[in-house]
Amino acid sequence: MTGSGTVRPFFRPLFAVILIALAGALFFRSLPREAPIERRGFMMGTAVSIRALADEETLEAAFGLLHSLDETLSAHLETSEIGRVNAEAGSPTQLSPQTASLLAEALAWAERTDGAFDPTLRPLTRLWSGDGQNHRPPTEEAVARGLGDIGWKRVRLDGDSLLLETAMGLDLGGIAKGHAADETARLLRERHVASALIDLGGNIVVIGGRPDGGPWRIGIQDPRKSRGECLGVVEVRDLSVVSSGNYERFFEWEGRRYGHIVDPSTGCPADSDLSGVTVLSERSLDGDALATALFVMGREKASALAGELEKEGFAFILAGDDGTLYASPSLEGVFRLESKEYRLEER
Ligand code: AMP
Ligand code: MG
Q1: Three-class SS of residue 104?
Q2: Mean pLDDT taken over the chain
Q3: With contact defined as beta carbons under 8 Å apart, do 185 and 198 qualify?
C-alpha cells in the first residue's frame, strides 16, 4: 500500500456527506413545491395572471401558449388566422384544425342560444369598438349595413374548409378567452400541476384546490361597483368560473354607456336588464360563450335557458340591474352572497 492507505480515511466521510447531500437534493426535488408562483401579463385585450404550484419554466410555457392563441384568434390583428380569414371573405379558405373546431363549438352555442351568441359579429364589433379606438356611437345607417353582413347561419364550415360571404367576418372574442383558459389548464395538468388559478380577465379556471388544501375562493365582481368590489364569493375546485357584463369594457357618450357585448338582433350594445352573468362549468369555452349569450338574452330568456342547462351540470349567478340575484340550486354551500345590496330570488 502506498499513499492511498492514508488518504482513504479522509475521503470516506467526505463521500458519505456528498452522497447524503445528493440523495437529499433528489428527495426535495421530487416533493411538490409548497409556495405558489405567480405571473401577470396583458393579452387578449385584458389583464391575465396565473398562480400555480409550478416552476418558472412551466409558467413560461403557459404564457407562450396564451401568446400564440392570442396571435391566432384575435379579430383585430390582420396577421392572425382570423384576420386572414376575414380578409379572404368571399372565397373558400382553409382553417387550422384547432380554429375550425373552436368555430364549430361557437356555431353550436349560436344555435343553442338562438343566435344571442354569434361568432360573425365582426362587422358590428368593428363599428362599435374600432378595436378600442372608437369612442362615439356609429350612425344608424352604418349599423343597418353591419346588420346585413352578420349571421351565424350563413357560415359554411365543412371540416376545416370555410366559406364566408363577402363583407362578413368572424369575431371569436366571446369564446376565445374560455378556450385559451381550457388549453392553459390542459398544459399545466400535463405537467402535473396540481394547484393553479388561471385568470384571463375574469375568465377563470382553477386546477385542484388552493396550495393549503382548501377550495379556491373566487370573488364575483359586483357589476354595479368599481373593479375589485365583489357581491359574493364562490368556493370551487377543478372548475371554470366565467363572468360577463357591460362593466368589463365600455365607452361613454353623451351620458350613456355603450358596452362591448353586441345584441345581434339590434346591432347595438346589448341593453340588458341583467348587469352581470356568471357561469360555472367544466369547460371554460362553454362558460365563456354562455356568459356572453345570457347577458344578451336578458333575465327572462336567460333564466329559461339556465334552467335547461342546470340539468347538464352548468350553474349560474344572474345579477339583475334592479338588485335581484338568482343563483342555481347546485350553488348551495358553494356561493355566498356578501353584498347587502342584492336580494336572492327564486327563478
Ligand atoms: P365576453 O367578454 O366574453 O362577454 O365577450 C365579448 C366579446 O365578444 C366582445 O368584445 C366581442 O369581441 C365579442 N362579442 C360581442 N357581442 C357578442 C355576441 N353577442 N356574441 C358573440 N360574441 C360577441
Ligand atoms: Mg364570453
Answers
A1: helix
A2: 91
A3: yes
